[in-house]
Each structure stands twice: as structure tokens, then as C-alpha cells.
């Protein structure tokens, strides 16, 4: 009987990993779809967005009407192969994995409505994300200002990363001088040693990496350590989590003048 106690949990975990992308959608998207809506409504018509940690893109597709109405273009990256495979399928099914029709206001010729790549924000050569497949020339060195992203979005992904300050610094060469970083995620209202122990372990049960327990003070420390950005806004997200333990917040950053 002892072997059953060992084998059954292992089999269940294997099954969960096989369906990791579907588990992600079932657990996360009800919350993150609202976050995408809030961020998209803050963007300007024709903005290009780098979505760092896009996951399965299901939350994005739930805001398809907002994306099309505002003529937005999204390039998403994620290091989880299963998420990227599902994201590509989801975007294609929603008819968002394609270039905008020629002459559409707000889009460069050949610019995609959305696309996703299996990349880490710590990879080298991320400047290629700023270019479309239709771009004939992709010069080495700094990306021209007009080809950079207007916004960078971390949807619950920043504090999942092993080195959040470095992740913030990594996007600086990819965004326009007047660009902004949007961060949405839940923050613990006060530190809890018990939750700090449990939260990182949840990935072994759900296959979803929830990262470390994070308070608003922790985020302020991450931003200060990056030393490239200043906070423009920090507010609770209406219609999302807000209880005595945690709250979902939208945080907007802009580059410090010396970092531009």
C-alpha cells in the first residue's frame, strides 16, 4: 500500500503537467482577463505592447474587441513551451495571429495584430522582438526609436521571475523614451511567514509558478534596485481581488530621465 501513496501523487502530477496550459487557464484567467482590460483601456490608439510572461494568451483574447478597437499590436514572450504552444493556437483561433490589413490606421505595413515567442526576458538578442518578419532590414545595435514598444506589460509575471530588477532593466532598450511599464498582480497587504512558505510550493500542486509572496513594499524595493524607473500610478484594480489579505493593483512606471 505504501507504494500506492507514492505512485498516485506522482501520476496525478504528471497528468497535471500534461495539461499545464489548461490548468493555467482554469485557475488564472478569470482574474487576469480583467487586468488586461484595465491595461488596454489605458493605452493609446496604435500602441505596440511587449507582453512579458503572456502565458496562454487566453486573457488577451478575452479582450479582443478592445485590442481591435484601439488598433493595438501585441508581441508576447514566455519561457514555458506548453503555454507558448497554446497561446499560438488560441491567437490563431481568435484570428489575431495575422498582420493587420494594409493601410489600417495605427499599424506599420506587415505589422502583426499579435504573436508570441518562446523567449525569456533574460535572453540575449531581444532587440529582434521590435522587428516584424516583413522588415527587410534589422540593423544591429540600438533599436530605432520609432520601432520600439510604446508599453511593456507584466501581467502577474514580474515577481515570478528569478531576478525582477534585472527583468525591468532588460526592457528599457526595447521601449520608447516616453514609454511606460504596466504591472498588474496581487499584493499581500502584510507579510505572512506561513504564506511566504506555502506560495512557492503551490507550483508543485498546480504546475503554476505563483512566485514569491510579494507586498507593495517588496515591489518598491524591486523598482528601487532596478534604479531605472519611477512610479507614475499605483492603484487598486476595480472589479478584481481586494480583501483583508491581498489586493490586485495596477502599477505604472516610466523611465527616469537619466535612464532614457
UniProtKB/TrEMBL annotation:
**Keyword set for this entry?**
Methyltransferase, Signal, Transferase
From which residue to which does the signal peptide run? 1-20
Can you tell me which residues the record assigns to a coiled coil? none
Q: Which terms does the UniProt entry file under GO BP?
A: methylation
Is this entry keyworded Methyltransferase? Answer: yes
Q: Which InterPro entries does the entry link to? A: SAM-dependent_MTases_sf (IPR029063)
Query: Which SUPFAM superfamilies does the protein's record reference?
Result: S-adenosyl-L-methionine-dependent methyltransferases (SSF53335)
Q: What is this protein called?
A: Methyltransferase domain-containing protein
Q: Which Pfam families match?
A: Methyltransf_23
GO MF, one example: methyltransferase activity
